[in-house]
Amino acid sequence: MRTLLFRSLLSPLATTAAPAPGDAALEELGRTLAERARRLYGRSLAIREVDAGSCNGCELEIHALNNPVYDVERFGIRFVASPRHADVLLVTGPVTRNMKVALERTYAATPDPKWVVAVGDCGCGCGVFEGSYAVIGAVEKVVPVDLHIRGCPPTPTAVLEGLIALVDKVSATPRG
Amino acid sequence: MTAILSELAKHAPVAGHRPWPRHLVDAPTWTAVARALGAGAADLLSLWADETHVHLALRSPAHPTPLVVSLDVKNATYPSVGLHHPAALRLERAIRDLHGIAPAELPDARPWLDHGAWELRAPLGARASAELRDPADYVFLPVHGEGLHEIPVGPVHAGIIEPGHFRFTANGEIVVRLEERLGYVHKGIDGLLSGADLERAGRIVARISGDSTVAYSFAFARAVEAALEIAVPPRAAVLRGVMAELERVANHLGDIGAICNDAAFTLNHAHCGILRERVLAACGRAFGHRLMMDRVVPGGVAADLMAGHARMILDTLDEIMPWFADVVRVYDGTPSLQDRTCGTGILQPALAERWAAGGLVGRASGRGFDARRDVAYPPYDDAAFNVPVYRTGDVDARVWVRIREVEASVDLLRRWLAALPEGSIRTALPAIASAREGIALVEAFRGDVLLWLRLAPDGRVARCHARDPSWLQWPLLEAAIEGNIVADFPLCNKSFNCSYSGHDL
Predict the structure, then answer these.
(1) B 142-171 residues inside an 8 A Cβ radius of A
(2) Is the peptide bond before A144 cis (omega within 30 degrees of 0)?
């Protein structure tokens, strides 16, 4: 324990520098959020992650956002345990038929105003699972989506860029 | 079992199935095999079906080379294996759901992967249209007794994890039964693979379980290579080993931290998070993808490793190992942490043996099987490495197996990266004139992944079956949690860390 603490004193910061909001994400949000956002969040977003059929690759990289290297909380972004506490649903896919009802119920349980971010090539489209009897496909086929973050899986930095753009946009929108 | 095996050995196996023999058997022999499995005379490796047959892969300690027995399915039914050997129950429920083949006298009539949402019955069989059913329409096993209450959890869980449903029955704080319901992330992968060319099939297989993408691609490549009777260049074999061990190290680091986190010890979680990130970043730089997806392909590997990158990975290992040793010292020297992990979630060695539970779950409960050593394949066939085995079967044992495996993997990585063979990284795939079959067992970080496939004469995949180690581990979690407090479930669950996507397929 002492060694660990001592090492911490001498080590440089583990945390990476903040990435700028992603260009593609900013453009997409500019189109969709302006009319919908009605409340000022003060640069804070509570996120509920929903795996609606993913291979778990996206979850690994989303998970990494909470480690000290990416430290997503410094941007006011926090993962919460219940959709009732969430502003944003971060959904990975492809949405399977067996998860459709659970995703719809999670969306319904999230209070308004809310945003949905589709993560990964499968959540944004259907990825390699296109054409299967068991999948519905893109998240937007089941719930409305405000932001797409592509990649297979997207790197933690790519997810972070999208989320920072979302925070900036939401907090810049005047209170309704 | 020995009598059955020597009887089978008198007959020629099915032609074109490699590298293990596949024997067509009659119903009495099939049932005799099922009884032998139930009596513990052999390990069940997997059980699956195609249009005409059911197949069972097994391995007997007396005959270390596994084999496959196949039975002709008549009138859409065959004698149940699960009737004699409970480890086969869920595999048979899946066969019934997917193919519409009914295992006769199967003791569990409930569907498993089919939640009534496909609008299809038997999607890999007759494909009859079906009405949508309420997904909640599922009968859990009845529980009777005074003072019992039920706690339903999922499919959407509180963390950033995969979906599944857990039905707890508790007496106060004590869990008296856990029943799992899985299948939520069933993507119909078996169906997608039928008719796919090798490139597309490889990309799908790499996404069966994202955390084990290297292991799945490795198993797929080895099954294709077995079917085509080709070997890969030595450099490709070692690079596969490098990627597979990096994947194991990254996953184990993540799990060790997460288990400590579930015991409210976030310090180790934070440090392990950084260590894992260092490994993934090195993988990303060296192989162009942090999880090394689509890098192992039939015939070899898709990406070579530059000399500077081999050095960079070695430097990363030199950086993280003293740091990891500190984390281990903290784990080992913190009684409040061990108070949570020692004696918690005990999986009895007898159960691990009966289910032939692979990987760290088996090795923490006395079952010393490791496919890398016991069904050896390149590059492990000429490498010596430590396979840690513990007998206590608790969360603590599963942590220690991971710790020792990180050390063993890093040891392998250092030896391989210091002396990488020169040469090409890919062998061209020959054209085939007739159908071929291949099977492979590859040790993923969770345990052994089995992959069987049949190639059509045009070189496409005719049928492919992948069995995740979790199929034989998930049922044991139900046993391990019994008698523990509800609050210790996350700890037990994380210490198993079974795959949902790999299981649901």
Answers:
(1) 155-156, 158-163
(2) no
